[in-house]
Structure formats: C-alpha cells, structure tokens
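Suppose a colleague, Dr. K., hands you the sequence of a protein chain of 496 amino acids and asks what its three-dimensional shape might be. Before reaching for any lab equipment, you can write down a predicted structure in token form. Begin with the sequence itself:
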Amino acid sequence: MTVLSRASVKTTSGLNSHRATLKSLATTTALTVLGVALIGISPANAVDDFETPAGERIVGGQATFERPELGKLDVRQSSDRLVVDWDSFNIGKKAKTEFYQPNSNSLAVNRVLSKGTDPTKILGTLKANGQVMVLDRNGVFVSNDAVVNASAVTFSTGNVDTASVMRGDTILELNNFGEGSIINEGTISVADAGLVALVGKHVSNRGTINANMGRVALASGGEKVTVDLYGDNLVEIALADDKGRALVENSGTINAQDGIVELTAQAAKDVVDEVINMDGVIQASSFTQKGGKIVLSGGNSGTVKVSGTAKASGKTGGGTVKVTGQKVEITETADVSADATVDGDGGNVYFIGREMAILRGKSSAKGGENSGNGGFVELSSDDEFSFTGFVDTTAANGETGTFLIDPRDIIIRLGTRTGADSFIYEGDIETMSLTNNIRLEARRNITVDSSIYGTGSDGIVRLAPNSDLLLKTSNSPFGAEANNSGVIDLTGNTTY
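The predicted structure, expressed as tokens, is then:
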C-alpha cells in the first residue's frame, strides 16, 4: 500500500382541600413506551379543566394554601425548604398552580401518595419563582398544552428523604422508584442556570425544555439516583444487577444555550434493547462563548441510538458531545456537531461503544470562520465498528483537526466501499482526508487486505494536500489483550 501526502451534547393548612368534579375528556391519549401502555388518559381517569392539587399535608416546613377562585391554587411558602404530601397533584387544562417562595433557591417537594394507579397529570400551568419537585410513583405526564415555569424543576417516580430536604442538602437521593413514566409533551422552562431533571424507569421528552445556561438531565434506571441541585454533576445512577429495562427518549427539543444536557440510562446487564433513543433536537450551543456539553450515556448495557440533531457549537469555540454505551448507533439522519462558529478551535465529539460503534450520519468539529483550528472526532469500540458517514474537522483559517477510529482491529481493504461493514477502504481514507487528518489506531492489529473491492483501485492511497494519515497499534487495556503490542501488516500490496 502506498500513501501519498504532503506530510501531515407552618402550614396553616386549615383550609379544606378543594376537590374538583371530574369530567370526561373529549379525547383519549395513549402513550406507549417499549410496546406497553404506560400512561393513559381516558374518561375513567380524566382531569377536570379546573382541577388543582388536593389533599395537602405538610410534613416539613411552613406554607399556606389559598384557593381564591375556581382553578387557582396559590402555595405561599414561608420556609426555605418545604415538603408536602398530596392526595393528588393534577392541574387541569384551564387551571393554574403557583408557588410563591422566599427566593429562587428555595425548594418545594411535592410527594403524591395516591391510592390508585393514575399518574399525576399537568394539563394547565405550574409556576414557581423557586425550585419545585413533583414525585409520583405512578408517573408524571405534562400535556402538549401545559406550561411549567420555575427556577428549577424535577419530576420523578422516586422518593426523597424528608430529613435530607429539610436540613438543606444540595445533593438529594431519589430511590424506591415506581413503575410509572415521566413524559413531557408540553413546555418546561427554568430560569437562567436552572435545572430540569426528569428521572424514572422510563423518561420521554416529546415537547420542549428550555434551560438557558442551565442543566437538563433525563435519567432512567438504577435503584438510586442522586440529583445535584446546584453543581455540575446533575445526576448519578447506582444500578442493582436485578433491575430491568431503562429507557430515555428525546423526540422533542431541548434548548440549553451555554449549558449542559445529559441523557443517562442504566439497564440491567442482560438488557440489549435501546436504552437511549434521541431522534429530536438537543441544543447546547452558545452565541456568545464556547459551546456547551451534551452527554448521552447508556452505561454498559443496551443501545444508544441517535437519529436527530445534537449541537454544542459556540461563538468562541466548540463544546463537547459524548455518546457512550454498549452499542452506539449514529444513523443516516443524525447531525452531531461541536463547531466553533466565529473564533476559536473546534470542540470534541466522541462516539464510544463497548461492543459496537456505528457512524452513518454527519459529525463535525470545525474551527471558527475567523480563527482557530479544527477539533476532534472519535469513533471508538472495544470490538467492532462501522463507518459510512461524514466527518468534518476543517478550519477556514487554521489547521485541520483529527478524526480518530480506534477499534480492536482494523482491516484496510483496497478499492471502494459497496455497503456498510466493519472495514476501512482505500476510498474511505481518501475521502476522509479531504476534511480531516486521520488516525487509525487498533488495539491489536492493522492489516491490509490485498483483494480489490469495488472499482478504481490501483493500490495507492492518495491523501488530500496538507492531510496526515497515522497508522498505530497500542496496548489494549482490556483483559487478555492487555499485553498485546499489536502489529501493522502492510504486506497485502507490493507497493509501499
């Protein structure tokens, strides 16, 4: 093989609870995840248009509850922390529930202790000037007409320790998760630098989440999840081996300008289905500074599938997008980027699958239009990979960045690609070199297949001007391969 080059993501709750009369909804909504109806809204469990949360019992802190008119509930919180147990926390289509809190960092935890199986349904408006948690083991459903606006919002099927809340802990542990789902089809908005956390066994955003300079976390799986109310750790999941499925979906839009977005799922180790499905839009870009951070983490089980858009671009530099899991699939319709739009270097994009990493869509980490160098894109697997996509790490006024492919083994075939497989072709290298410097690093061996595939091969790899190709093997950190120094075998062709 010949290589030609120029070189180189106190109550006073004496008020009686208002219990609205239930009316039938005109329509029935069935929401299905993993082929199972998780939340259904039917005439039997419909929510009256003017229904508000009912049956409040304060278990920590002080607040009063006022119902000045039909469809209106005002919670006036006088303590910094508040924990309330509710019979229900439904908000009808024409209803509004508002929390008046001491400051934007104040927290109100709303625990729903329903005797039935119906989830909490927010169909109208939920508003707070501080932080609000709604916890219901049966699930939380936010309809497409609903509006949630607060300093920070957490919806979960888990429970939280009252004592931890009341002593002011900033990192709270959610546990004892119910089987319900957390589904947003409406609009959830938080204040600048606020947090949106949707946590349960099944989590789905089909609406819009806005968190300017903030943090958005969609998390599923595990027996315990910690939520960081103020820091950058967002959520951490502790998984028990006997736990089952986990699923996080985003088919809607997540806007976190200058912020951080994390979609995290931890399934049991025998689960092989999709645990994260991202076919919507995630924006963590910045119009004023460096791009934000997007993390899609599927843990050690299941498949992380991206067929939507994930952008962490920035005016003064690209951000970071990291997609990891047992299997990672970036489909043909996916667009994943961490570009510098004006000045600065391109960011970093990682596609890392423990068993398989597939890149069929587009990915870029371009340098700024005025200045800056290209960034870094990595397609990595402990085992197999497949690349039929497009990667661009160019810079208009700087040095081109790097595209790294580092699976266990690499076989380079002469000729051109005719379909998706786990090989690198002569034609692939030549095309990739137009927009990248290329690093092919195998944990074991790199081999050239002397057979000719496709058409037009002369056994010579011609790189674009100013592009580099690096072939390298390295010691693998994985098990029996740990002491394998690797081999580069170019004997598949008589020309070097």
